[in-house]
Amino acid sequence: METPTKLRNIITINEFIRRQEMEADQATGELSGLLMDLVLASKIVNREVNKAGLVNILGSESTANASGETQMKLDVFANEQFIAALENGGHCLAVASEELDHLLTFDRARQRGAHYIVAMDPLDGSSNIDVNVSIGTIFSVFRVEPGKRVIMEDFFQPGRRMVAAGYILYGSSTMLVFTTGQGVNGFTLDPSIGEYCLSHADICIPEVGALYSVNEGNVPEMPPGVVAYLQECKTRHNPAGKVHSARYIGSLVADFHRNLLKGGIYLYPPTQKDPNGKLRLLYECAPLAFVCEQAGGMASDGERSVMDIVPEGLHQRCPLYIGSPRMVQRLLACLHG
Fold first, then answer.
1. DSSP code of residue 57
2. Spatial separation of the C-alpha atoms in residues 237 and 110, rounded to whole Å
3. Is the pLDDT of residue 5 over 70?
4. Considering the entire predicted model, what is its pTM?
5. Where are the beta strands (DSSP E) in 101-149?
6. Which of 23, 50, 195, 252 is deepest in the core (most CB within 10 A)?
């Protein structure tokens, strides 16, 4: 019996990752296995996100994460699930998480001669959990010597050395978007079969858009060049030649994802309160910069490409201007004009 056309055309993320690895002549399966470990954990987190209002996992814990921010209960759950999946998979030597002030290393992976380490924000935008707004997971993967006993400095690699990065968006549908340096592809979770299926192939960000995403409540504390750029966004004197629309959710993954597909710029500049910015370089800025550049976009801290910054600490903060290339270029011109 011939397979129906709809079924025959479905490409699952498992199949896609293995194909991509084979095409890159990296047929060991180790990176594929690590990515599938992240996929598994994301399905478990997605399940809990979807029923968060029905069980006692909403609200805050009494603890704070490594950045001093109050942890939400689902933050802690997501952190535990991703760590467990990576440890059990045996493909990851060590994990650095926004929720922890120390590294976690895995002896099993070291004994197997694994090559990879993972930095992650297990649940970005967690302050929005209680009000049912989209949240996400951000991850980046680096390569080290096989079987190495990992130390903190092994994570201090510029984004250019990443071998994979991406994010999972838990929203009206659940999407996983990632790159291994061969373009950007998006997969939507089909709950009826429990599989991520290719839904957005070869994502390319528009060269210029008409959306800007920023917390304008911070304008009085922003650099003058950023304020000048935002004024341009509200007129027709900009690369798009039309008044831009402000779209700000407050969940980095959700704001970035929208701009990636539709064209736009996300701004989190330094302020008087946070002179180094507020977003974390390793867990947020660098992995999204890798995705953005692979999709044809730009990401800058105002002085240089985010991908060129060498971290000096696990929880280092960084200003971020990311999105459509002509919009980021214009922003940089305003900063230095």
1. T
2. 56
3. no
4. 0.92
5. 104-105, 116-124, 135-143
6. 252
